[in-house]
Design brief:
single chain; about 180 residues; alpha/beta; UDP N-Acetylglucosamine Acyltransferase, domain 1; 7-stranded mixed β-sheet; 5-stranded parallel β-sheet; 3 helices; 20 strands; about 20% helix
């Protein structure tokens, strides 16, 4: 989906959302957490977000039940970001729905392209992971720290690396 992020409405929305994020990050009180969560399209019970959270619009983010987002998470949400129940998002994770033209000439047009990201339930995303636009992550998957996710992630599998590659199938009874 192509969209113009430089419209007055979107610039104003980003300023309001960034102000809410800064307020939460300065003082991560229950009240400021509630203000932050009120930006989202939907959020479940027992969602906890640590200090250092940033997003652009908020209204395209959906969080399931019992989601934990660790420190310094950035979500560029020009497209929808859906995070299922019981997900663990490690510190310094980036979830990026936005892309730009690769052609230098076309890039002068300043087009933004948004592709949705869907993370199913019970996923653990390790510290420092970067998730690129258009990715789907299957339930019960684990993504190793420092990974760059450039392709869809199968359910019940461990992926790691840059780019992230399948390491192995996970057994339901194992602990990592």
């Amino acid at each position: 989906m192509i969209f113009n992020s430089l419209t007055p409405e979107l610039i104003q929305r980003r300023h309001r959302v960034h102000d809410t994020c800064r307020q939460f990050n300065r003082s991560p009180s229950k009240g400021n957490l509630l203000r932050l969560k009120s930006l989202f399209a939907r959020y479940g019970e027992d969602v906890f977000i640590e200090q250092g959270f940033y997003c652009d619009y908020g209204d395209k983010i959906t969080l399931g039940q019992r989601v934990y987002i660790n420190i310094n998470c950035t979500i560029l949400d020009g497209g929808e970001v859906t995070i299922g129940n019981d997900c663990l998002i490690g510190p310094n994770v980036q979830i990026l729905t936005i892309n730009h033209d690769t052609s230098a000439t076309d890039r002068l047009n300043k087009n933004n392209y948004a592709e949705d990201i869907h993370i199913e339930s019970n996923v653990w995303i390790g510290a420092g992971t970067i998730i690129l636009p258009g990715i789907n992550i299957g339930s019960n998957a684990v993504i190793g720290a420092g990974s760059v996710v450039t392709k869809n992630i199968q359910a019940n599998c461990l992926y790691a690396g840059n780019p992230a590659k399948k390491i192995r199938q996970l057994d339901e009874t194992e602990s990592t």
